[in-house]
Amino acid sequence: MKDFFEGIAWLFEEILFLPFNMLRELELSSWFLANILNWIFVIIAFAAFIFWMLQLKKFNENDEENRDPTAHSFLG
């Protein structure tokens, strides 16, 4: 049973964590390249935010919403 768990530990340490080890070594030479995945996520989030704001603007300009304070029961 001990060999089974040592095999799992070896799999994670030597195989599955290899990309993270490579990023850790890359950080010594280039911080920006080591954080490329983070930069990609920031760009995706920024693009999603811009898209969402443009959609809100489009629906706001349609002026179909009833903006009267008594339009919704929870406001009155």
UniProtKB/TrEMBL annotation:
It comes from the Bacteria. Pfam families: DUF6341. One of its GO terms (molecular function) is glycosyltransferase activity. The chain crosses the membrane at residues 31-54. Keywords: Glycosyltransferase, Membrane, Transferase, Transmembrane, Transmembrane helix. InterPro entries: DUF6341 (IPR045922). This is Uracil phosphoribosyltransferase. It comes from Antarcticibacterium arcticum.
